[in-house]
Amino acid sequence: MRGILAVAAGASMLALAGCSNESAPAAAPGTEAVAALAAGQYEVATKVEDLRSTDHTTPLTKARQMAAADAPAVHRACIAADGAIATDMFAEAGDDCSVQNSYVRNGKINLQMSCTRPGAPGQVLQSVAGTFTADGFTATVNTGTYFSGSGDYAMRRTMTAKRVGACPAGGAKS
């Protein structure tokens, strides 16, 4: 009997909540989620939050863990007119990457990439999770490596990107 009363009370509260004349609070300007990421060139600020060896050797990456006061590394990359994100947005320079899974819509980014690195047989796997607005995005990129030799590592980076204009012919490489 108590269970029935609890369910009835909960249903009544939900019905009353739906009758409110108050509107939901408006999102701050520029923070509204949009259906798709805008095409163009983005300036991407990257901070290495965590970098550790997973095989007790020196990590085989040019990236270095940054102190809190360090300025982020900045590069530019493009998003195509069809919404495809260039892999160099997230990959280390020189890596050859392909997107394995991609969900970039309704203000959310979830992306998995598989990369190879010259001189390091094996894989560099990256997982990107973030959110975007009309003029930029923020994301966390988790990287794990599986090299046939030494140098395996796990890395976590945070990225903040802002659209700065149209892509140059051939895309951005900086």
Q: Would you give an account of this structure?
A:
With 174 residues, the protein is mainly beta. The chain has a single domain (34-165), classed as Lipocalin, CATH 2.40.128. The chain contains one helix and seven strands. The chain has a seven-stranded antiparallel β-sheet with strand order 2-1-7-6-5-4-3, with no helix packed on it. Strand 4 and strand 5 (120-133) form a beta hairpin. The model is unreliable at 1-29 (pLDDT under 50).
Q: Name the quaternary structure.
A: single chain
Could you state the order of secondary-structure elements as H and E? HEEEEEEE
- How large is the share of residues in beta strands? over 45%
Please state the structural category. mainly beta
Strand order, largest beta sheet: 2-1-7-6-5-4-3
CATH architectural grouping: Beta Barrel
Q: How would you describe the shape?
A: globular
Count the DSSP helices: 1
For this structure, the CATH topology is Lipocalin
Alpha carbon gap, first and last residue: 68 Å
Helix percentage: under 10%
User: Spans with pLDDT under 50 lasting ≥5 residues?
Assistant: 1-29
Descriptors for this entry?
Lipocalin, mainly beta
Structural topology:
Layout lengths: L1 H16 L22 E14 L19 E7 L16 E10 L2 E10 L2 E14 L2 E12 L5 E13 L9
Antiparallel strand pairs: 1-2, 1-7, 3-4, 4-5, 5-6, 6-7
Can you give me a brief rundown of this structure?
The protein is mostly beta strands. It has one helix and seven strands. It has one helix at residues 2-17, and strands at residues 40-53, 73-79, 96-105, 108-117, 120-133, 136-147, 153-165.
